[in-house]
Amino acid sequence: MTTADVTTAADAKLARFRWVSLAEGVSFLLLLCVGMPLKYGADMPAATMVFGSLHGILFLAYLALAWDQKQAQGWDGKRFGVVLLASVLPTGPFWLHKSLKK
């Protein structure tokens, strides 16, 4: 395996994490801005079940890929903490997606 192969693989992993970050952010906003109002305003609890399940799957993928990136990129505890904090803020994943751009 050459250095170029390793770099390409690392870039691909980072790109995948960035896209999962973006998808997780969108799912979080859909849950907050669509699912919750439908549940409490229109008495449609199924909306939060759908958006909540989607967000939960993407959140778990985000955490797993964040850990993978911590190992691959050599992030320190502070950087990893910022990445984890970004996952629980409504617009955090969008900021993270942009900040990880090369």
TrEMBL record:
Pfam families: DUF3817. This is DUF3817 domain-containing protein. Its main location: membrane. The chain crosses the membrane at residues 19-38, 44-67, 79-96. It is found in: Cell membrane. Keywords: Cell membrane, Membrane, Transmembrane, Transmembrane helix. It is a multi-pass membrane protein. Residues 14-102 form the DUF3817 domain.
